[in-house]
Amino acid sequence: MALAMAYSFTLLADIKAGRCSTTAEVRLLRFWEAPNVKRGNKHMGVDMLLIDEQSTLMEGSVSVNLLSIFIERFSEGSVYTMCEFEGGDHSADDALCLERIQ
Hints:
Strand 2 (42-51) and strand 3 (57-63) form a beta hairpin. This protein is 4% helix and 49% strand. 21% of the residues are buried. The chain is built from one helix and five strands. The chain has one domain (19-100): CATH 2.40.50. The longest helix is centred in the C-terminal third of the chain and has 4 residues, at 67-70. A five-stranded mixed barrel has the order 1-2-3-5-4. It is mainly β.
């Protein structure tokens, strides 16, 4: 008999600033285009609202450089497993960035 190993996800409340190599499981509540108002509303990427199993809300963004990889996969209400992302740093050009909502 084989036993299935339970996979442990990092909770959004435990994500620290900087590059994360952990894995988080989140539900995508909403996403919308993010214009840069300082640059004539030039498209910057997509902002999103995420929630985890502990009901922790977090804002996230995908830069315009990575948008073509992810945009077709986004569906509001769906659950996603995220890995290799930046925590709390919206300055990264090629990153999925998350910032905790206080």
